[in-house]
Amino acid sequence: MLLLTPQAGANSELPALCRQRWPDLPLVMMGRAGDPHLPSADIVIEWLHPQGTAAGWFTGAAHALRFRLRGAGLPLVMINSPHVEALPADLPDDLEIRLTLGAGDSIAALSLGRALAAGALLQGFAARLRDCDLTDPDFALLLTEFFQGPSEC
Amino acid sequence: MLDAIWRKYATLAGVFEARPQFHSPAARSRAKAYATLKGQSPAMGAVLEDLVIDPDLVAALRAGIPGAQHLAYELICLGAPVDAMVSHFSRQHYLTLYPDIASANMNALDHYLRFGASEGRKTLAEIRRNQMAGTQPFRPEWPTVLICVHEMSRTGAPVVGRDLMREAARDHNVIVAALRGGDLLDSFLEGACMVVISPNPMEDFKFTQHEAFSQIEFAILNSVECVPFIRPLVAREIPFASYIHEYADYTFPVWKSTFTGLFSDIVVFSSEHVRDSWQGRLTDIDFDMARDTSIIAQRPAMFGTLPDQERDAARAHLSGLLGRDLTGTRIICGAGHLQWRKGSDIFLMVSRMARRRSEDTVFLWIGAGQNFEDMGFGTWFDYHLRQIGANDPQGNLFLLPAGDEYQAVMQASDAMFVSSRLDPLPNVVFDALAQGCRVVYFEGGTGFSDAAYQGTDRLIGVDYADPEAALLALLALPPKTGQDAVPAAAPADFNVFLQLRTALRERLAQQDHFVIGASTFDLPILFGTSDEDRPLRQRAREKIQTYGRRMLWRDIAEVERSLRQSDNWVHRGMRVAAHADISPQEMQADLPAFSLHVHAFYTDELAEDLRNHQTYHLARRIVVTTDTEEKRSEIAALMAAEGLTPEIVLVPNRGRDILPFLDLFAPGGVAGQDEIWCHVHQKKSLASATGGDVWRKFLLRVLLGDATSLPSALREIADPRVGLVAPLDPHYVGWSAARKMLPHFAKAMPGPLPAHPLLFPIGNMFWVRRPVIDAMRALFGPAYLWPNEPIPNDGTEFHLIERLWPAMAAQCGLDAVFVHKTDERRV
Question: Looking at the partner chain, which of A33, A61, A70 has a beta carbon nearest the beta carbon of B509?
Answer without folding.
Answer: A70
